[in-house]
Amino acid sequence: MVPFNLLVASCLLYVILLFLVAFWAERQAQRGRVKWLRSPLVYTLSLSIYCTAWTFYGAVGYAARSGLEFVTIYLGPTLVLIGWWWVLRKLVRIGRTQRVTSIADLISSRFGKSNLLGVIVTLICVVAATPYIALQLQSVTLSFNVFAGPVPEGWAMRDSNSTAFWVAAGLTLFTILFGTRNLDANERHNGVVTAIALEAVVKLVALLAVGVFTVWIVASGPADILSRIEASEISDWQMQPGRWAGLTFLAGAAILTLPRMFQVMVVENADERHMATASWAFPLYLFAMSLFVVPIAVVGLAVLPEGSNPDLFVLTLPLAFDQGGLAMLAFLGGFSSATSMVIVEAIALATMVSNHIVMPLWLRFRTGGARGAGDVRGLVLNARRLSIAGVLALGYGYFALSGGSSALAAIGLISFVGVAQILPAMLGGLFWRGATRVGAAAGLLTGFAIWLYVLFLPSFGAGELFGAELMLQGPLGIGWLRPQALFGITGIDPLLHALFWSLSLNTALFCGVSLLTFPGPMERLQGVAFVNVFDHSGPTRGWSRGGAEAEDLLAMAQGILGADEAQGFFQAQAAAQGKAGFLPDTTPEFFAALERRLAGSVGAATAHAMIAQFAAGAAVSVQDLMAVANEAQQIMEYSSQLEAKSEELARTARALSEANEKLQALSVQKDAFLSQISHELRTPMTSIRAFSEILMEGGLEGPDQARYAEIIHDETIRLTRLLDDLLDLSVLENGRVQLNVQVANLHDLIDRALQAAGQTRVERRFVIHRDLPAEHMPIFTDTDRLVQVFINLISNARKYCDAARPELTIKVRRRGGQIEVDFIDNGSGIPAGSQSLVFEKFARLTDTTRAGGAGLGLAICREIMANLGGTITYVPGQGGAAFRVALPARRQREAA
Amino acid sequence: MDKRVLLIEDEPNIIEAIRFILARDGWAVATHSDGETALTAIRASVPDVLVLDVMLPGRSGFDILADLRADPGLQALPVLMLTAKGQGGARGAAEQAGADRFLTKPFANAEVLATVRELAGL
User: Fold this and answer.
1) Which of A195, A186, A182 is nearest to A37 (CA)?
2) In what residue span(s) does the Response regulatory domain sit (chain B) (predicted)?
3) What is the ipTM of this complex?
């Protein structure tokens, strides 16, 4: 017998191990070492969350009660995976091209990004999953009780409740920690997936160990087992073809529609080719899991005392032979099965709830919608955390209320039937372009309602929610509405009865209503994108060129993706268009790409609604519909080739015209350069000449004389500074500058710059925001030159920031070997048209000579940064003028 | 002699210098340093002579001059233009815009004084 405390301790140790593995995997992923974290092996193992505690413990019980019928639960998924080429491959491809975040998102996105459908599917999933989660909590509790020994006294129940409570609380913590690290559901949860792969190994090893023990230690080898099976009542079991086919179908449907399976199979999929491996490896895993089920059941029935719970044979058999260590391993296997299921299920459901319920509500009730929304990542992540806690609380509540009733044993299949209601809309959406949003909604709601009425609510047991009378006579005595004999057809197994009626009426309404209604333009577009996903994976168009400013879009995207992500994405998009900088043209292609990127974080419907608030002419254009209508494959191929070419041309043309524009602007500036220099030299010269003539004439009073002399003095200094700047610039431009490279603390450099720049417009009170801890990092460069750049940026902010209460934020961060320092003020910033010119010589945006400089400051900064091996850029969309200085922490010696 | 001159220029030290030179000669000197509102200032105090800089914040001296010449009330106002850009083109542009005289910075004080007096018909 294993001491109970030892059990709890090993349980805790195991959980700590999982934490460490998840943490380690996240760290590896952060460092870019994802190679084997993202291997087909890990993918296959993660699929094994299909095997929950219900299959780990329950399969033996199932076999003890109904013979080989338990095989159906493994047979359905096996068939689906072997036939992966037809359905799964398409599902995964669509999941990747459309950046689908959940099964609710898939349905919503397919049917015109309808949020209504997202909400319906989310509800179905939550309702169906709650008892299933409760079942996992119960299995952990039951297995604990096996070890706790025979204490049937009054406190046992309360104790098992508290076991379930602590398990639920621990799982909530784990899931929140590793399931909500980043927003983009398409950015995979490396920690969670790796921990789950480990758990998959543990449960397989545990079950195999118990099986080997049973066959070779308890019995005397395979021959003995075969004769024992022959002798047991299991061999009397007769196959019922109807139930066999129905359950196989149901399990096959479940692996496609269970939220957690969709999560690991589609959302977390890193590479389509992994499916090819999983298509044979996962059935193999299932085979190994089921190999010893019958032997354990037969031996358990024969050896253990009459009335032992066959659901717990996996534990009680080793215990009966005093194999404490083996029982412990079996316990951890069951524990693994339960926890991995709950973790992934909670992540999947939380994504749905936050994307389809919380975000749309927020968008609707927030005045101003998505515009200027600021950082919403915190909101979404918190919504997800709360949803995770909510889902687990529901599961625990169900467990506590149902009191661990025996009805829970059937709950796995009941959940399967619930989520299977999504199947018609899913398959119809993948293969039938005529399927419509209204049809899908009608089918889903019908199936869901029937499932609730004939299977879910009666499952609480007679006399609980439905009185015995209602079950026997029907509601209000209407006989053909009896929950287990709809339309007066009796004598079918209740589960098959429910499966048949809910799915057939669901499918009939889905098809019928789809035929009667017309899909809207967006539904048509999405329909083609889904059904013909392999024919042309090109982006679907949904937007015409809008009046939206790329800068506004960037500000919004930053709120969802985070500043780095969003800026990186915009920069890449601009580069693809042949443009430099952060702001791409707002072409329809760009809108579509941005929408897909956002959909990866907040779901298709919400992303679409957010973009719609920016893009003018959100409607689908006639051209887009023509493209849809045009079916002739040849024309399609030809035109897509042409399109590729013309896109290439357009890109080149854009790059050329941008270069040309810049050259023209530069040539105008070159012309202006001489006259600018002339102007800058002549202005101080004028004062000097005029006042020196006045002084020469004499006859002035003392104070006047002194003042005029001072003016002459100041103006000569101004002249000298201008000449210094010009010389500095010319040295820097020719790359003949001598760098004095040394090591320094970046914090000290910023301090020096702030102090020096404080001399500019001393009368302005500036609030400076700094992140002091982040600033302490060593930097190896020409520190005087870097400080010169900092001073320039800070004094520019002091001069030009036009806010009533000027503020300057200095952000420091290290990315790879790069150090980035951002200087962001809260003024009105630099207009988009001038952003590419500010770094040119004499490009003063206003004519005020009063600002003091000659308009050479930023040009010098740019040259300094180039000499230091870094860059200085203007970052749009930061709510003010924002400059980013980036340089390598250690200056690279360029090859001489 | 109680002649008034209006100086439109944005460089404080140059304003100070010209004011000193003219005031010493007995002129009443008013100044204005913004291009955008210059026209209003001219209309408010129609001076005997206008000294107008070319590079002004808000609006260039050429534009202001063009508006002056289009206004019947101010058509005849004598104007001396100042410019710091010593390029040949500037003189032509100033004459075309209707400037009566044109001086390049830096100038000789005596030259400014002589030109202003001449424009005032003294």
Assistant:
1) A195
2) 4-120
3) 0.93
